[in-house]
User: Fold this.
Amino acid sequence: MKNKTLIIILLCISTTLLSAQNIDDILAMVIQNNTTLKASRQIVDAEKIGHRTGLTPNNPEVEFAYMWGSPTDIGNRINFTAKQEFDFPSAYAYRNDIAKLKNEQAELEYQKAKQTILLETRLLCCDILYYNSLRSELEQRLRYAKEIATLYQKRFDSGDCNILEYNKSRLHLLNITKDLETNDLERKSLLTKLEGLNGGITINFSSTEWPSELLPTNFEEWYAQAATKNPLLTWLATEINLAQKEIKLNYANAAPKFSAGYTMEQVVGQKYQGITVGMSIPLWQDAKKIKYAKAKNIAAENTLKDKQLQFYNHLKNLHTKAIALQTNYIDYEKEMKQITSYEPLQKALDKGEISLIDYLMEYAIYYESHVKMLQLRMDAEKIYSELQIYL
Assistant:
């Protein structure tokens, strides 16, 4: 029974690791485990509770007085008063609307934090994919370098090549070995950062498969969709609604406030009781609050227009770069598949048709071209990642 349980646990762990071999799965794990997002979620929930306070009328007031008479033959006196103060009725409705809008803004703050974490994670995954792909290339180069070193070891032992060629083969193997070690060091460092974003939980991300999505070429259609998913723009639009509600609330607060209650007075042989009503006269307490609220509304509208323009220009610039890099990468990959091939180069060296120097020079050109292609792919994916958070 224990063995079965252990097998089930291992299968579950294996499934988790396998399911984390693409960026979307990693993003889902980070959303669930990221400690910054968890803290942000708790802060937002607390703020929502805070925004719902103060929406009800003020607490009722109760007064009681017991006064001893002097001289004592006049008796004692008792006073009792209970009253409740009310704002103008519409003020409660506006306060409730404002609380809802503030809660929406608090949720948007969480969405902004979430987008920031997701973008950081996507960019990190792009770097890891690059080093994963480079590692695959270096491993292939290392296999060939070992074969060459072995071949020239035999040739040198048999006197078929000189010490210079033999040393070149050894140096070639050493360089590739160290390149692979450096690549692994960078990759491990990035995986550690990814682990931190995932709440300290390790993610085994060894995939070399880049996302296959292509960015739509029509920017205006794409932007119309992206603009509705920008938390900042939505937050600013909510700020305008909030400012408009505050104007109405200040008008309501400028109206008279009312109070109603019960009062009782009792002395020896006499008792008076009845209801009391009152009204506050708004003279100077709320002066200029309406003017202030109107100024905030105008400022919010102008800020939204400015941010909309900045957002549009920023995304248009990114979109233009992404399309250009995407096109360059597709063209580069197409040509590389037709041109680059290590096997004919390896066979030519084995048959003695080319020298080791020629082999190393040609190999270096192939490798450099492959690295450039990977860099193009990574750069395109990074820009696409910044655009992707609005899709």
Remarks:
- Residues 89-158 form the longest helix (70 residues).
- The radius of gyration is 37 Å.
